[in-house]
Design brief:
By secondary structure, this protein is an all-alpha fold. The chain has a single domain (4-211), classed as Tetracycline Repressor, domain 2, CATH 1.10.357.10. It has eleven helices and no strands. The chain has helices spanning 4-10, 15-30, 37-44, 48-55, 58-84, 89-106, 109-119, 129-142, 154-172, 174-181, 185-211. The longest helix is centred in the middle third of the chain and has 27 residues, at 58-84.
Protein backbone atom coordinates (compact mmCIF):
# COMPACT_ATOMS: atom_id res chain seq x y z
CA UNK A 1 0.00 0.00 0.00
CA UNK A 2 1.46 3.40 -0.96
CA UNK A 3 2.59 5.64 1.88
CA UNK A 4 1.05 9.12 2.31
CA UNK A 5 4.22 10.59 0.75
CA UNK A 6 3.98 8.30 -2.27
CA UNK A 7 0.31 9.25 -2.69
CA UNK A 8 1.20 12.96 -2.51
CA UNK A 9 3.87 12.50 -5.17
CA UNK A 10 1.50 10.59 -7.42
CA UNK A 11 -1.05 13.42 -7.39
CA UNK A 12 0.53 16.89 -6.95
CA UNK A 13 -2.94 18.46 -6.87
CA UNK A 14 -4.26 16.26 -4.08
CA UNK A 15 -4.94 17.44 -0.55
CA UNK A 16 -2.01 15.37 0.69
CA UNK A 17 0.30 17.15 -1.74
CA UNK A 18 -1.06 20.59 -0.83
CA UNK A 19 -0.51 19.91 2.88
CA UNK A 20 3.00 18.57 2.21
CA UNK A 21 3.95 21.67 0.19
CA UNK A 22 2.67 23.98 2.93
CA UNK A 23 4.47 21.97 5.59
CA UNK A 24 7.76 22.27 3.68
CA UNK A 25 7.42 26.05 3.56
CA UNK A 26 6.38 26.49 7.18
CA UNK A 27 8.80 24.00 8.73
CA UNK A 28 11.47 25.68 6.60
CA UNK A 29 10.52 29.13 7.88
CA UNK A 30 9.96 28.38 11.56
CA UNK A 31 11.65 25.05 12.26
CA UNK A 32 10.08 22.00 13.85
CA UNK A 33 9.70 23.33 17.38
CA UNK A 34 8.04 26.63 16.38
CA UNK A 35 5.67 25.12 13.82
CA UNK A 36 2.23 23.81 14.73
CA UNK A 37 -0.13 21.67 12.70
CA UNK A 38 -2.70 24.44 13.15
CA UNK A 39 -0.37 26.87 11.32
CA UNK A 40 -0.04 24.43 8.42
CA UNK A 41 -3.79 23.74 8.28
CA UNK A 42 -4.53 27.47 8.24
CA UNK A 43 -2.05 28.01 5.40
CA UNK A 44 -3.79 25.33 3.33
CA UNK A 45 -7.24 26.59 4.27
CA UNK A 46 -8.45 23.42 5.96
CA UNK A 47 -9.42 22.43 9.49
CA UNK A 48 -7.00 20.57 11.74
CA UNK A 49 -8.93 17.30 11.54
CA UNK A 50 -8.42 17.19 7.77
CA UNK A 51 -4.67 17.52 8.23
CA UNK A 52 -4.63 14.70 10.80
CA UNK A 53 -6.71 12.53 8.48
CA UNK A 54 -4.18 12.87 5.66
CA UNK A 55 -0.89 12.93 7.59
CA UNK A 56 -1.37 12.01 11.23
CA UNK A 57 0.64 13.81 13.91
CA UNK A 58 3.07 16.69 13.47
CA UNK A 59 6.11 14.40 13.63
CA UNK A 60 4.66 12.13 10.92
CA UNK A 61 4.32 15.11 8.60
CA UNK A 62 7.78 16.41 9.47
CA UNK A 63 9.35 13.03 8.73
CA UNK A 64 7.58 13.00 5.36
CA UNK A 65 8.89 16.49 4.59
CA UNK A 66 12.46 15.44 5.39
CA UNK A 67 12.16 12.26 3.35
CA UNK A 68 10.80 14.26 0.44
CA UNK A 69 13.60 16.82 0.67
CA UNK A 70 16.27 14.16 1.12
CA UNK A 71 15.14 12.27 -1.97
CA UNK A 72 14.96 15.53 -3.90
CA UNK A 73 18.55 16.41 -2.95
CA UNK A 74 19.70 12.95 -4.05
CA UNK A 75 17.95 13.39 -7.39
CA UNK A 76 19.67 16.76 -7.86
CA UNK A 77 23.07 15.31 -6.96
CA UNK A 78 22.51 12.50 -9.47
CA UNK A 79 21.64 15.14 -12.05
CA UNK A 80 24.84 17.04 -11.22
CA UNK A 81 26.92 13.87 -11.52
CA UNK A 82 25.40 13.15 -14.92
CA UNK A 83 26.21 16.65 -16.15
CA UNK A 84 29.83 16.72 -14.91
CA UNK A 85 30.86 13.23 -15.95
CA UNK A 86 34.09 13.17 -17.97
CA UNK A 87 34.89 16.86 -17.52
CA UNK A 88 37.90 18.47 -15.87
CA UNK A 89 37.82 18.98 -12.09
CA UNK A 90 37.53 22.76 -12.51
CA UNK A 91 34.57 22.40 -14.86
CA UNK A 92 32.91 19.82 -12.62
CA UNK A 93 33.14 22.13 -9.64
CA UNK A 94 31.80 25.12 -11.54
CA UNK A 95 28.85 23.18 -12.96
CA UNK A 96 28.08 21.57 -9.59
CA UNK A 97 28.08 24.92 -7.79
CA UNK A 98 25.85 26.50 -10.44
CA UNK A 99 23.33 23.64 -10.37
CA UNK A 100 23.16 23.31 -6.58
CA UNK A 101 22.88 27.07 -6.09
CA UNK A 102 20.06 27.27 -8.64
CA UNK A 103 18.23 24.40 -6.92
CA UNK A 104 18.66 25.75 -3.38
CA UNK A 105 17.82 29.36 -4.26
CA UNK A 106 14.64 28.05 -5.94
CA UNK A 107 13.79 25.99 -2.85
CA UNK A 108 14.93 28.16 0.11
CA UNK A 109 13.11 25.97 2.60
CA UNK A 110 15.64 23.20 1.87
CA UNK A 111 18.77 24.91 3.28
CA UNK A 112 16.65 26.25 6.15
CA UNK A 113 15.41 22.75 7.01
CA UNK A 114 18.96 21.42 6.96
CA UNK A 115 20.32 24.20 9.16
CA UNK A 116 17.38 24.00 11.58
CA UNK A 117 18.04 20.28 11.83
CA UNK A 118 21.66 20.87 12.83
CA UNK A 119 20.74 22.90 15.89
CA UNK A 120 17.19 21.91 16.83
CA UNK A 121 16.58 18.17 16.77
CA UNK A 122 13.03 16.93 16.43
CA UNK A 123 11.80 14.13 18.71
CA UNK A 124 13.51 10.76 18.19
CA UNK A 125 16.43 12.45 16.46
CA UNK A 126 14.58 12.91 13.18
CA UNK A 127 16.71 15.01 10.85
CA UNK A 128 18.36 15.34 7.47
CA UNK A 129 21.91 15.08 8.78
CA UNK A 130 22.11 11.28 8.43
CA UNK A 131 20.90 11.39 4.85
CA UNK A 132 23.28 14.25 4.03
CA UNK A 133 26.19 12.21 5.38
CA UNK A 134 25.29 9.47 2.92
CA UNK A 135 25.74 11.93 0.04
CA UNK A 136 29.17 13.11 1.18
CA UNK A 137 31.01 9.98 0.03
CA UNK A 138 29.50 10.16 -3.46
CA UNK A 139 30.42 13.83 -3.79
CA UNK A 140 33.98 13.11 -2.60
CA UNK A 141 34.43 10.50 -5.34
CA UNK A 142 32.92 12.81 -7.99
CA UNK A 143 35.31 15.59 -6.93
CA UNK A 144 38.28 13.15 -7.01
CA UNK A 145 38.88 13.46 -3.28
CA UNK A 146 38.56 9.71 -2.83
CA UNK A 147 39.02 6.64 -5.07
CA UNK A 148 35.87 4.93 -3.80
CA UNK A 149 32.90 5.85 -1.64
CA UNK A 150 33.99 3.30 0.98
CA UNK A 151 37.45 4.85 1.12
CA UNK A 152 36.74 8.48 1.94
CA UNK A 153 39.10 10.06 4.43
CA UNK A 154 38.00 12.28 7.29
CA UNK A 155 39.81 15.17 5.59
CA UNK A 156 37.87 14.64 2.35
CA UNK A 157 34.57 14.50 4.25
CA UNK A 158 35.44 17.72 6.06
CA UNK A 159 36.22 19.48 2.77
CA UNK A 160 32.87 18.45 1.29
CA UNK A 161 31.04 19.62 4.41
CA UNK A 162 32.88 22.94 4.22
CA UNK A 163 31.55 23.47 0.69
CA UNK A 164 28.05 22.31 1.60
CA UNK A 165 27.76 24.54 4.65
CA UNK A 166 29.17 27.57 2.83
CA UNK A 167 26.50 27.22 0.15
CA UNK A 168 23.72 26.72 2.72
CA UNK A 169 24.69 29.77 4.73
CA UNK A 170 24.91 32.09 1.74
CA UNK A 171 21.38 31.09 0.73
CA UNK A 172 19.72 30.94 4.16
CA UNK A 173 21.23 34.28 5.16
CA UNK A 174 20.25 36.13 1.99
CA UNK A 175 18.02 38.56 3.89
CA UNK A 176 20.99 39.45 6.09
CA UNK A 177 23.77 39.50 3.48
CA UNK A 178 21.99 41.03 0.49
CA UNK A 179 21.37 44.46 2.11
CA UNK A 180 25.06 44.54 3.03
CA UNK A 181 25.90 44.12 -0.65
CA UNK A 182 23.22 46.62 -1.70
CA UNK A 183 21.97 44.45 -4.57
CA UNK A 184 18.80 42.73 -5.75
CA UNK A 185 18.03 39.01 -5.63
CA UNK A 186 19.12 38.19 -9.18
CA UNK A 187 22.48 39.90 -8.74
CA UNK A 188 22.91 38.31 -5.31
CA UNK A 189 22.53 34.84 -6.83
CA UNK A 190 25.21 35.57 -9.42
CA UNK A 191 27.54 37.14 -6.83
CA UNK A 192 27.19 34.09 -4.59
CA UNK A 193 28.01 31.74 -7.46
CA UNK A 194 31.04 33.79 -8.51
CA UNK A 195 32.29 34.07 -4.92
CA UNK A 196 31.92 30.34 -4.27
CA UNK A 197 33.87 29.55 -7.43
CA UNK A 198 36.54 32.14 -6.54
CA UNK A 199 37.09 30.53 -3.14
CA UNK A 200 36.38 26.86 -3.70
CA UNK A 201 37.65 26.00 -7.18
CA UNK A 202 41.30 26.96 -6.46
CA UNK A 203 41.08 25.27 -3.06
CA UNK A 204 40.07 21.96 -4.63
CA UNK A 205 42.26 22.11 -7.73
CA UNK A 206 45.54 23.52 -6.36
CA UNK A 207 46.69 20.30 -4.72
CA UNK A 208 45.97 18.27 -7.83
CA UNK A 209 47.79 20.77 -10.03
CA UNK A 210 50.82 20.69 -7.71
CA UNK A 211 51.03 16.91 -8.11
CA UNK A 212 50.72 17.08 -11.91
Amino acid sequence: MPSPLEKARQDPNSMKARILAAARRIFGEYGYNNTTTRMIAKNVGIDISTLYYHWGEKQDLYEAVLEDVGDEIQDKLNDVEHNVSGRSLTTRLEIALDMMCDYLFSNPEVPNLILYGYFNKAPNGVGLDIKISEHVANIAVAMELAPHKRQVSVQAKARILAVWNTVLNFISAENLFRPMLDTDHADYVEVVKETLKFILVPAFTAEKEDKA
